[in-house]
Specification:
heterodimer; A: Chemotaxis protein chec; 9 strands; 30% strand; B: alpha/beta; Rossmann fold; globular
Amino acid sequence: MRTLTRRNGGKSASPETGWAPLLEIAILDVFDVMLGAKLRTAIPPDPPLAADFTSMVGLAGDLCGVLSFHCRAASALQITSRMLGMPVTALDETVRDAIGEICNVVAGNFKAKVAGIVNECMLSVPSVISGADYRLYSIVDGERVEVAFVFDGEPVWVTLDLNN
Amino acid sequence: MKKIKVLIVDDSSVMRKMVERSLRQSGLDISQVLEASNGMEALSLVRQNSLDLVLSDINMPVMDGLEFIRQLQAIESAKGVPVVMITTEGSASPMGEALLFGARGYITKPFTPDQIKEQVFPLLEA
């Protein structure tokens, strides 16, 4: 198993013991505070599920990679409805905006939680993919951390792809 | 406390609505909410309106929140209007810069209406 080491020669952290629990806490926090929702942790599905919405935020600096949030259409509508405090039924620009913002806030919260481990980490603005017919390939070797949850009876999952 | 006119600056329209909802839930008496999706749009609204409060994100396209607040200082009608940054960036560096440029406080996303109230009410009572 590889470990991720800070470029500046600082201490290292194993993804299994370091990143996944911090990522989980970040997501649980965001859903609790922003949406008033208590997520239930789940085992990441194998084979992976196809997501209807994927939002991504890039990480650069001592921690390099991409944090992605994935969900199905039903969850995307429910997330948007909770954020706006009103029912949302159309899968439109508002839903894409909401899913991008969720990923953005999760990435910011995760960044705050790794502040003692990682010196510098910058975040990109979020990008959103709607539709399930795509594959995302990383062009560099690295680590993948995946955490999954149940939100209102539907799966939502987050992947953290880190460059070594 | 008098009715206030608020400018909310964020590139996410959903987040702007969440901030407005949180402001109302916190008990603020709001007469009007203006919205901008970046610093450039916000500067234009500041020049055209008399505001009581500005809440701004930092990471935005076109013009980010730090540049917005820096340029805001040069607008005579905006002098004394409290600006609070609302951002995912909880790290010290951008926050320190924002405070240096005149921000009166900051709130980290995700936030609760109570956290907005704690930051904003003292600024409006002052």
